[in-house]
Amino acid sequence: MALTASEAKVLGALAGLTPTEGLTVRQLRERTALSAGTIRAGLHRMTYNGFTVSTRQSPVVWRASDLGRSLVASYPALREFMPPKVMR
């Protein structure tokens, strides 16, 4: 499955967090400068493919799954979308 540039930005932002941290769509919008609709569509597609998971609380918090984290770690091109503080 190929990721779009917007999905890569969102997954990179989520993969840069610890496994217990997550972001809302609003927080993702602030970090990625993408529209809420674009983020939601990407999140739902990535959830379908197993790269992201969401909580059932309100507001919904999104996290990168283990598969999503390993995808970002495996492909150097995706690491550019991670926040700078996370890159080591």
Give structural notes.
- The protein is mostly helical.
- The chain is built from five helices and two strands, in the order αααββαα.
- The chain has helices at residues 5-15, 25-32, 36-48, 66-74, 76-79; strands spanning 52-54, 62-64.
- A two-stranded antiparallel sheet has the order 1-2.
Q: In what order do the strands lie side by side in the largest sheet?
A: 1-2
Low-pLDDT residue spans: none
Question: Beta-strand percentage?
Answer: 5-15%
The pLDDT mean sits at 89
What is the terminal-to-terminal distance?
27 Å
Kindly report the oligomeric state of this protein. single chain
* Alpha-beta classification: mainly alpha
Order of helices and strands: HHHEEHH
Q: Helix count? A: 5
Total strand segments: 2
Helix content: 40-55%
3D shape: globular
Spatial extent as radius of gyration: 12 Å
- How can the largest sheet be summarized? 2 strands, antiparallel
